[in-house]
């Protein structure tokens, strides 16, 4: 397998983007990614589109490739729920690492606000084990994570305040990220006073419904060195699946799939969690950020809420997490979230991120933790600037 | 988070989808519920029990499974109350969804009735280890299902 680098990234504004359709939205990240890499549309021989399927297009990859006229590329669309564009990146990585192509593009794009909110709640709720969980019992996505929140708070004695602290941090960093959906800071009190969505999770514990796109271009080592002076290397991209039905899970205080993917990724990258300078983790709900920290191994079981309480996940702390605002406040366009994480971390490792959101880079490693469903899929990507 | 004005749009052609969910291979489960029985599958080859029931053993891949009756005794593992509901559950009152461990060691997801889905009451009552029993029921739509209730 060849070494593979990120050579171009692009990002659209996240939010309620009812001014654009799927192709137009994808274009907003494809164009800057090509410019960043110094490549033209005809230079892309392999194109993977990540899209969860929430808008009217049955063939979203075709709609996107056609709008940007990326006609030279082998084309496919992948789905791994909220980890969809990490899966897309993994496919693009395989195509380059294997020697099949020298360059590949992963486009994550999702349009979610074309349907009214109750229908989106319905569609995402169905994204678990439809027959045995949704059909009879109407579980929603906040509900799935609320089951974990109840278990975590009960087992470790953490409180709803700890969950609120995660939201406060992520809003703080989103406030200075021009691409973020929510640009205002919030307080713990505001979170605690917000209405329950799925007890014990409240409105401000939940990520919003978002439209957005993010594009990543990969190149093989030799090509990457010709294209850029600041390649960001993919040291590992590892995935794992989890049981469809929550009733087959061993525990509800972590996500096994993420834990296994993290173990595989650290082994592949030959580093330990303490070498990570900055991380993006899948904080679709505040509880998810705590579980992610423990599943990755940034701390032991039941310790994440203490690190949060100490402020160790802010820039300047032990491990800065989601300093682009995270899913919670930057927004969570399902199929674009994975590539959006890679956008932020690539900029971080290049040292060219938004000044107020730039983490100190000491060891030169960054990590993206992207979960699909409630641990139904998980991808861990480790990037380096070495 | 003020609601901004909507941008210009054209409404798509409407589409109502109703999928026909096959239950031939798990029919004894649904028939059992109608008679107040809580059944699942057990592999005749390796003895593996599964919940939900499935016609093919996921351990040894044998398709020789038998139907066995479960005790209906369970213990709470975790729960949530769904306040913001999906469109197809819009007519329901706030409901509690629980994950419970059955006496036989299997786990199951289902509604928990008999506890008020009020945050204060939930905080006090929803504790792991709470004793539950399984009851069978018929939905408004006429489909058999099961619920947990405090024992
Ligand atoms: Zn068997």
What is the overall pLDDT average of chain A? 97
CATH class descriptor name of the largest domain in chain B: Mainly Beta
User: Could you state the order of secondary-structure elements of chain A as H and E?
Assistant: EHEHEHEHHHHHEEEHEHEHHHHEE
**Gross CATH architecture of the domain at 4-115 and 209-227 in chain A:** 3-Layer(aba) Sandwich
Q: Helix amount of chain A, in percent?
A: 25-40%
Query: What is the CATH top level name of the domain at 4-115 and 209-227 in chain A?
Result: Alpha Beta
Work out the strand percent of chain B.
25-35%
* Approximate shape of chain B: globular
Strand order in the sheet with the most strands of chain A: 3-2-4-7-1-8-11-10-9
Rough outline of chain A: globular
The tally of beta strands of chain A, per DSSP, is 11
**CATH superfamily name of the domain at 4-115 and 209-227 in chain A?**
Thiolase/Chalcone synthase
Q: What Rg of chain B is obtained from the alpha carbons, in whole angstroms?
A: 19 Å
CATH topology of the largest domain in chain B: OB fold (Dihydrolipoamide Acetyltransferase, E2P)
């Amino acid at each position: 397998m060849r070494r593979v680098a990120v050579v171009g990234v692009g990002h659209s504004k996240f939010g309620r983007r009812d001014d654009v359709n799927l192709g137009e939205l994808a274009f907003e990240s494809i164009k800057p990614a090509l410019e960043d890499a110094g490549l033209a549309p005809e230079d892309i021989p392999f194109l993977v589109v990540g899209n969860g399927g929430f808008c009217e297009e049955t063939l979203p990859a075709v709609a996107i490739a056609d709008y940007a006229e990326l006609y030279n590329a082998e084309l496919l669309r992948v789905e791994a729920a909220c980890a969809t564009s990490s899966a897309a990146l993994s496919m693009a990585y395989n195509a380059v690492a294997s020697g099949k192509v020298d360059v590949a593009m992963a486009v994550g794009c999702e349009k979610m606000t074309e349907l009214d909110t109750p229908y989106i709640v319905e569609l995402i709720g169905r994204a678990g084990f439809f027959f045995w969980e949704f059909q009879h019992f109407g579980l929603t996505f906040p509900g799935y994570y609320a089951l974990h929140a109840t278990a975590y708070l009960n087992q470790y004695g953490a409180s709803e305040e700890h969950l609120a602290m995660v939201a406060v941090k992520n809003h703080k960093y989103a406030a200075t990220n021009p691409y973020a959906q929510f640009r205002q800071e919030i307080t713990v009190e505001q979170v605690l006073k917000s209405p329950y969505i799925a007890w014990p999770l409240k409105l401000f514990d939940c990520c919003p419904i978002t439209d957005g796109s993010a594009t990543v271009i990969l190149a093989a080592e030799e090509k990457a060195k010709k294209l850029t002076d600041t390649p960001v290397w993919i040291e590992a991209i590892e995935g794992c699946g989890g049981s469809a039905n929550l009733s087959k899970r061993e525990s509800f205080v972590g996500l096994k799939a993420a834990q296994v993917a993290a173990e595989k990724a650290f082994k592949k990258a030959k580093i330990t969690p303490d070498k990570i300078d900055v991380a993006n983790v899948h904080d679709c709900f505040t509880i998810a950020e705590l579980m992610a920290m423990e599943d990755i191994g940034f701390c032991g079981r039941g310790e994440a809420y203490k690190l949060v309480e100490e402020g160790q996940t802010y820039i300047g702390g032990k491990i800065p997490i989601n300093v682009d605002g995270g899913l919670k406040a930057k927004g969570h366009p399902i199929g674009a979230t994975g590539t959006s994480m890679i956008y932020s971390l690539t900029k971080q490792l290049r040292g060219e991120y938004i000044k107020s959101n730039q983490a100190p880079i000491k060891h030169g490693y960054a990590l993206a933790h992207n979960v699909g469903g409630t641990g139904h899929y998980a991808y861990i990507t480790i990037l380096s600037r070495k | 988070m003020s609601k901004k004005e909507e941008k210009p749009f054209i409404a798509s052609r409407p589409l109502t989808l109703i999928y026909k969910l096959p239950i031939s291979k798990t029919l004894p489960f649904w028939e059992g519920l109608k008679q107040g029985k809580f059944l699942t599958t057990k592999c005749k080859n390796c003895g593996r029990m599964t919940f939900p029931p499935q016609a093919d053993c996921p351990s040894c891949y044998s398709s020789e499974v038998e139907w066995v009756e479960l005790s209906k005794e369970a213990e709470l593992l975790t729960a949530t109350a769904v306040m913001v509901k999906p469109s197809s559950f819009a007519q329901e009152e706030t409901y509690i969804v629980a994950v419970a461990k059955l006496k036989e060691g299997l786990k199951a997801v289902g509604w928990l009735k008999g506890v008020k889905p009020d945050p204060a009451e939930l905080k006090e009552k929803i504790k792991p280890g709470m004793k539950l029993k399984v009851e069978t029921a018929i939905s408004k739509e006429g489909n058999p299902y099961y619920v947990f209730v405090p024992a």
